[in-house]
Amino acid sequence: MELEKYQKIFIQESSRYLEELDAVLLKVENDLHDQQLWGEIHGKIHSVKGMARALSMMDLGNFCHAMETWCKLFQDGDKTPDERVVQLFFDGTDLLKAFVAGKGEISEPRDLESLRSISEDLAKDPEAMAGRAEPEIRPSAAPGKIDRIRVDYALIESLLARSQEIMLLEKTLPPLTQDQISAGIGSWINHYISMLKGLYFQLAQLRLMPVQDFGDLFVKTIRDLAKSYNRDVKLEVVGGEIEVDIGLMDRLREPFMHLLRNAVAHGIEPPDEREKAGKDREGKIVLNAERHGDQLLLTVRDDGRGLDREAISAYLEEKMGMSREEMNSLSNEKLLNIICRPDFSSAKETTQLAGRGIGMNVISQAIEYLGGTMKIRSEPSKGTRFVISLPLSLSIIYAVLFRLGKYVLAIPTSHVHTIENMGSEPSREISRFCDLRSLLRVDDETGGNGHIIRLRQSATSGMPQSEDDGLGISADAIIGNMPLMAIPLGELLAKTGLFAGVGIMENGDISLILDVEKMQAAAA
Prior knowledge:
The protein has about 525 residues and is an alpha+beta fold.
């Protein structure tokens, strides 16, 4: 039993060190002579070795020791590493992960072959790598299952404290007479329910992960794919602060793996070709996250050559028997959606990495299964854009909360430009106004002492922000800017056409999240 306990600790700790090792190797690849980075690599491999030998996993310990020997040479400056050395360390790290998963043993034939090959290399002088040929192209490892998320220590402390309060609350029910029991019990129950709602809100946050962390899962994948195709590619994440339910993001791992592979294999051009076309040698793939109403919009775009329209036309002619006239009559959207058919592939030949005719079909089916949609946009020599819209089962947003009559309403903070007192001199005239009072049938009882919330013009029109434009709405009182757990609308509220979702506050109270785009349509 004790052995199982220590093996579990070994797997958890070693997995963490090896994930960190990938990140350090990505850094050292850009600065091969940074002795401090090689010292970090040395330290992480040494930690894995120590735990392995403590559990008598000698094969794993010996393999780590061989990698350590090379690290020490680079750390001390005795030998000079090159890109082939770094690639060997990436391969060695992947093999260490297989070791750890197998509790110190290797069983897969491919891993056994890698073990022999890498062990032979590590037994040589590092500078002997300089004369070796480039490593052959191989498939990149897909990101592992999302089984951990980062949680702030303050949140854990808060949850523990709240849990203790709830347990102690049972002992606080006061002694009551028969006349007092109804009101006393009611007050106690309301307090109890309020605390349970708060606990639920905080527990729900443990299921959330930032989109940035999701994007980080693919950094090494992009690096490996770029090496395999002789490309220079970087991945950027925009809107990475948006937090989304981990279950949804885990189901998106495979579709995104296919999208990124296609972007590198078919979209991003080789560096010399890009330079001749007036582009940066380094290609760019951007993952952009936005929240529109109760939908999560994830856009994956690249700045490559765009979709191969000749391949699409050839498919339509050869596989579907369409004439040029029929092809020309297709809308751009229908033409591009052809790539999602099960047997479509633009690869000239089948390899381990592409050309099997299953990529885009797998993506479209996976997104449809999640209740989402995907739109494709592409321009020759400018790149391709995939816009994926998914229902948000759970997310945390920051919003400005305000009262209007009996309603507590919320607007995402990113949409708010300014808040002004109604009685003060306005900074500028309001060109458009959404009369929520009339729409919600709320009387004005503020006596001119309410507020005007001015929204960003870009939030309502999609155009660059202008100081002379923007939607205005009235508010009786401003509650504040705070995090909300956003959940989808029910059928009844959805029929109003004004709301994007329901927001749950930390104390369990609820608010209605306004849909800015629908408000624009209702603006006078």
